[in-house]
Amino acid sequence: MKKYSGRTATAIIEFPQHMILLIKRDSIPFKGYWALPGGRAEPSETVEQTIIREVKEETGLDVAIVRKIGEYHEQGTQDGV
């Protein structure tokens, strides 16, 4: 299994009454699990571009970034484990 190391971005999308948006994953190994929208950055993307793209792909929503909370690096394999 090919190793992966790179930038990952996750969005916290808040609605009125302090509700947040979760997505239900549809692919293995986390099929059926709930998660915040987000994913891996493409090599040429900024973290902000990654969030906007991933949220659009996963939810169909167009978003604007209000505040960046942080950034982390993920290490694992390409299948997400």
- What is the alpha-carbon Rg in Å? 13 Å
Task: Name the CATH architecture.
Answer: Alpha-Beta Complex
As a percent range, the share of strand residues is 25-35%
Report mean pLDDT, rounded to a whole number. Answer: 85
* Major sheet size, sense and barrel closure: 3 strands, antiparallel
In whole angstroms, the N-to-C terminal distance is 10 Å
Order of helices and strands: EEEEEEHE
Number of helices in the DSSP assignment: 1
Structure commentary:
By secondary structure, this protein is α+β, with helices and mostly antiparallel strands. The chain has one domain (3-69): Nucleoside Triphosphate Pyrophosphohydrolase. 16% of the residues lie in helices and 31% in strands. It is built from one helix and seven strands, in the order ββββββαβ. The strands form three sheets. The protein has a three-stranded antiparallel sheet with strand order 6-1-7. Strands 2-3 form a two-stranded antiparallel ribbon. Strands 4-5 form a two-stranded antiparallel sheet. A hairpin with a 3-residue loop joins strand 2 (14-15) and strand 3 (19-20). The mean pLDDT is 85.
